[in-house]
Amino acid sequence: MEDTKRFDEISIMRVMAMTMIIAFHSLCFYSGRWTYMGAIDVPFWSSVANFLNEIDLNMFVFISGYLYGYLYIFRNKYRHPTEVIRNKVLRLLLPYCLWGVFMVVVFPFYSLPQMLYGVSHVWFLLMLFWVFTMTVVLQLLNAQRLKFTRGLGLTLIVVGYVFGAVFVKFVNPDDFLCLSRSSYYFVAFMVGYLCAKLQVGWMMPGSSFLVLPVAVAVLILLIHYRLFLPYSVGRLMMSICSYAICVSLLIILSKTTISTGTRRYIQLVERLSMGIYIFNQIAMASVFSIPVLHEWFEMHWIVGPFILFLIGFFPPMLLSYIFNRNKHLSWMIGS
After folding, report:
1. Which residue in 152, 247, 265, 258 sits closest to 208, CA to CA?
2. Spatial CB neighbours of 211, under 8 Å, sequence gap ≥ 6
3. Closest-CA residue to 115 (of 124, 105, 104)
4. How far from each other are the two terminal CA atoms of the chain, in whole angstroms?
5. pLDDT by position in tens, the chain (length 335)
6. What are phi and psi of 31, to 5 degrees?
7. Distance between CA 100 and CA 327 in Å, rounded?
8. The 3-state secondary structure of 227-267, one letter per residue
9. Buried residues in 17-56 as b, exposed as e (16+ CB within 10 A)
10. CA distance 191 to 244
11. What is the SS3 assignment for 21?
């Protein structure tokens, strides 16, 4: 197992996921999603946003599951549940509370009760905290009664998806504390965890070069024509496509060689990824809080997404760098 090589592909995937998240946020205003900001709906940008939205966060959670599984299984880390929960409280729950309150206080789009349902984009931090918590519970069961095998992993994925669908529809439709979204993304986490267990990253690419474009093509077709399928079937198929894209990318990138300079840049962006995510939508919300800019971006819907992407990437990256370098500020972005 070559650690440097393994972390190359994970670093690349994390940067890809972050880039897709920023691109998605750049399109939210143009896909009718940010209604509280007076969003408009441009059909082409809406289709692109729907595609990105099926992959970006699934890939981010998949990576988290893969790394967690690798460190737990092969490096004997995360063995003490209280230490894991404490770590995630500091790195996820505390930044969620801090930046959630910040969004509520600074921007008129949000309200304090939203903190219980995942305010703005930082809901992702609350969701990921619950995903790690559920994983710790499963590990306690694993240590006492169960042995984590390939069959058990696949069973957990299937049961987790079914449980999540039932939980979202009948138990927690309002997504209190982001528990419904946690149940959905927990499946992506377990897919990553199982890939670490099976050492998928060291497998030969083989059919992965075919699986990736096929999964992308099927996902695009489902996004455009899923009305011909029952909603639950369409959702399941799109989720499977997103997982297939993640797994095939992991296998393909595990055989990819990058230069030292490229690796240094990718690892820099990877280290700053959490801060970039936190500051990204804050930067965009600031733009749409200014009436003249709001009007400009509404009129220039062709170039607007590209400019928003630049605004949502480079200033947040600079801020994240500053926060990461300062020991008194780094805790605010989970570093």
Report:
1. 247
2. 244, 247, 248
3. 104
4. 27
5. 444 445 788 999 999 999 999 999 999 999 999 888 888 999 999 999 999 999 999 999 999 999 999 998 888 888 888 889 999 999 999 999 999 999 999 988 888 999 999 998 999 999 999 999 999 888 777 655 556 666 777 777 777 778 778 888 888 888 999 999 999 999 999 999 989 888 886 555 666 778 889 999 999 998 887 667 787 788 889 999 999 999 999 988 888 788 888 889 999 999 999 999 999 999 999 999 899 999 999 999 999 999 999 999 999 999 999 999 998 899 999 87
6. -120, 15
7. 21
8. HHCCHHHHHHHHHHHHHHHHHHHHHHHCCCCCCHHHHHHHH
9. bbbbbbbbbbbbbbbebbeebebbebeebbebbbbbbbbb
10. 10
11. helix
Place of tokens 């918590």: 133
**63, two tokens:** 């990576």
Identity at 113, one-letter amino acid code = P
- 220 CB contacts (<8 Å, ≥6 apart)? 51
- Residue 165, amino acid: A
Nearest to residue 273, comparing CAs of 55, 7, 22? 22
Q: Residue 31's beta-bridge partner residues?
A: 41
Q: Are 185 and 157 in contact (CB under 8 A)?
A: no
**DSSP type of residue 117:** T
Query: Considering the entire predicted model, what is its pTM?
Result: 0.91
Alpha-carbon gap, residue 60 to 273, rounded angstroms = 10
> In sequence order, what are the beta bridge partners of 41?
31
CB 29 within 8 A of CB 47: no
Burial class (CB in 10 A: 0-12, 13-18, 19+), 134: middle
Q: Which residue has 């095939």 as its token pair?
A: 248
